[in-house]
Amino acid sequence: MVTESSPSPGLATSRPVFETLVVWCLSGLLGVGLVALAAAMLGVMEPWLVWPLGLLATMGLTRLAPRTAIPGPMSLGTVLAIVLATGVIVLGWLAPHEHFLGIRDPGTYVATASWIARQGTLAMEVSVPGVDPETVVYSSVGFPSVGAPATLRPQFLHLFPSILALVGSTFGLSAMYLVNPVIAGIAVLAFFAFARRMLGETQGSLATLLVVLTLPFLYFSRAPFTELTSMAFVFGGLWLLGVAVGSGSRRFGYLGGLVLGGATVARIDGVIVLVGLVAYVTWLDVSSPEDQATPILGGAVVAGLLMAGVGMANGLIYSPVYIADHAEFIGAAALAILVLRLMGARPAEPVRSLLRRNRQGLATVVTVGLGLWLAYAWLVRPFVEAPTRSDIYAIAGLQEQAGVAVEPLRTYAELSVHWLVWYLGIPLVGLGLLGLVVGVRRVLSKGDPDQGPFVALSAVAIVTYLFRPSINPDHIWAMRRFLPIVIPALIVFGCLVVARLAGRHSLVRGVVTLLLAIPILLTSIPVGLDPEFEDGGATVEAICGGLGAEAVVLFTGPSARALSDSLMPLLRGWCGVQAMAQPPDTTLDEEDVREISSQIPEDARLWVIGSDIGGDRITLVSHTFSYLEGTLFEPPQVWNELVVDLAATSPRD
Questions:
Q1: What are phi and psi of 469, to 5 degrees?
Q2: What is the pTM of this model?
Q3: What is the spatial distance between Cα 161 and Cα 436, in angstroms, rounded to a whole number?
Q4: What is the largest CA-CA distance in the chain?
């Protein structure tokens, strides 16, 4: 690890400008996000209330960062990182991906956020007055009913959509599409702050450049996805923990734990972060209990678990179906954390003695085992395994297109290392995995409290996701799993190996690092800068304008389910209209529709989408969108077109 000189721990001084900027950005993202989430859960999402409280929360978090010296004066590398972060924001604002159809996560986040912005609450009671609840359905993909048919609980955790809702309720709903690029910019700053501690100024900025150039970063940073929020928390938290250990500051440790734990509030799989951190703290407890880093990192674990409790409470109350679907994963992670903490709480002296005597041997065994498994995962597993799972992936169309056997349950997890190669290239993936193995050996054999949390966290995430990504295997969608931790971690490990091989030859180190960008660019350049679902916000506004403020929408006909899944939640949130659909496996004829029309309030007007019944008919929208192709055996290199042609009919009295 490359480090820079620093003054004595605790010495009061003026903190460098860049480090102050990163502390405020991370504190703001977490502080405002938590206040917005609380407001949405309590049903008081009012901008005049949330923004001031969010600022107070931000200021409170920054108080945990004492004005001790943090190594790192402003330099050319720091300026490059700031330019990269600014460029990411500008690109995202100029050419955002404006997802709105509820066919995947972004549409769910946008629909949830627009509901919160309009209604001020996460609670969704969506029944249409007067309509028999047994004759229609209100639930849709991403918005299951809980208890009563019209009581919905939006899928996922809700920190990110609450931030979107706060911005949308303040600046207009279309402004929500500008939020994730800003979060991506914060992620760039956080990653550079961390990479600089590991690699030094120049190579840290080059590593940041490599991350930004990858197609997964370029794609997911411009659309309503949570992965960049998680990345900002993970690497911002790791940087703060490094500062805490280097300066001996427990307060920095608490802030680092809170920020790192923010990943568990943003995404349900963020708990993997805590598993890695707890694993390393347990190793310190058992092998080096006298190390000054032990109480600092132990405090960070407590702070991280506090954040995990916030995320779990949000999920259990407002997304119980989602939590139940992932109960096995959550339970396994919680059990791992519990067992590890029990092991580290009161380790028996014979165990400590045994570890001290055999530390090098244990490091060798673990390192060799990890290296062999990674080699197997890359070189052997694709030819001997065909992992499946129990739920439908709906990838038959892509399999037919590729000319392979139609197996809807295939995960293609055996190709997970190959997926990384598509986007990063063989040299960088090879160097990154080698760096991981070397880092694990170093931490186990010699100890490194500064680098240890990063190595442990990365090892847990990389091994977990390479073994079982647990995601639909169509690309670029599947790379969401790898963006928050795995891709940036492999780049850091790869750069560490380059630095070690180049020694003191900084020019060689820089040139080799830049050469690693060539395979990345070969994948990114063809499609990396184009917008997806351009003018999505304007399209939704056109739909809302065509329906009118007092509309009640009924989805019926052969395409009712697909249309209602895609549009029903968005119409409720963005347009503020009531919406329902015909139950599955039923048919509503014109007489049924007229019966429902007679039940709705007199000042409302029923519009039917998906069925050709007699009445006044309007075209809500007819627009052709570009979207990135789905692939199974190569990275996406082509933009496809999707025609959204939507009409509605209002039955005559």
A1: -60, -25
A2: 0.95
A3: 34
A4: 88
- DSSP secondary structure letter of residue 130: T
Burial of residue 546 (CB within 10 Å: 0-12, 13-18, 19+) is middle
- Of the candidates 154, 142, 141, 106, the one whose C-alpha atom is nearest the C-alpha of residue 480 is 106
φ, ψ (nearest 5 deg) of residue 95: -140, 65
Q: Provide the pLDDT for residue 389.
A: 82
Distance CA 312, CA 339 (A): 19
The structure tokens listed for 417 are 């290392």
Residue 302 pLDDT class (50, 70, 90 cuts): very high
Query: With contact defined as beta carbons under 8 Å apart, do 138 and 145 qualify?
Result: yes
Q: CB neighbours of 6 closer than 8 A, spacing ≥ 6?
A: 69, 70, 71, 246, 247
In the predicted model, is pLDDT for residue 586 greater than 90? Answer: no
Q: How much is the average pLDDT of 287-310?
A: 90
- The Cα 436–Cα 417 span in angstroms is 14
Query: In the prediction, which pLDDT does 4 show?
Result: 38
* Exposure b/e, 329-350, CB count within 10 A at least 16 = b: bbeebeebbeebbebbeebeee
Which residues on adjacent β-strands are paired with residue 68?
12
Go through the chain and tell me how many residues it has: 653
DSSP at 151: E
Mean per-residue pLDDT over the chain, rounded = 91
Q: Which of 442, 454, 441, 451 minimizes the C-alpha distance to 277?
A: 454
Say yes or no to pLDDT of 392 above 70.
no
What count of Cα atoms within 13 Å lies in the side-chain half-sphere of residue 114? 31
Strands 615-628 and 639-651: antiparallel
Whether residue 561 contacts residue 611, with contact meaning beta carbons closer than 8 Å, is answered with no
Q: What are phi and psi of 646, to 5 degrees?
A: -125, 130
- Residues forming a β-bridge with 341: none
Q: What angle do CA 322, 325, 326 make, to 5 degrees?
A: 95
Comparison of pLDDT for 147 and 191, the residue scoring more: 191
DSSP 509-547: HHHHHHHTHHHHHHHHTTTTTS-SSTTHHHHHHHHHHHH
Compute the distance between CA of residue 260 and CA of residue 273 in angstroms, rounded to an integer. Answer: 7
Rounded-to-integer distance, Cα 474 and Cα 479, Å: 9
- Alpha carbons within 13 A on the beta-carbon side of 97: 26
Q: What is the SS3 assignment for 80?
A: helix
Opening angle at CA 235, ends 229 and 237, nearest 5? 95
For residue 476, say if its preceding peptide bond is cis, omega within 30 degrees of 0.
Answer: yes
Query: 627 - beta bridge partners?
Result: 640
d(CA 145, CA 319): 10
Split at pLDDT 50, 70, 90, the class of 11 is very low
- Could you give the CA distance from residue 482 to residue 462 in angstroms, rounded to a whole number? 8
Give the pLDDT confidence of 57-86 residue by residue, as tens digits. Answer: 999 999 988 765 455 556 888 999 999 999
- State the Cα–Cα distance between residues 48 and 5, nearest whole angstrom: 45
Rounded distance, CA 507 to CA 401, Å? 46
Q: CA-to-CA distance for 23 and 236, rounded, in angstroms?
A: 8
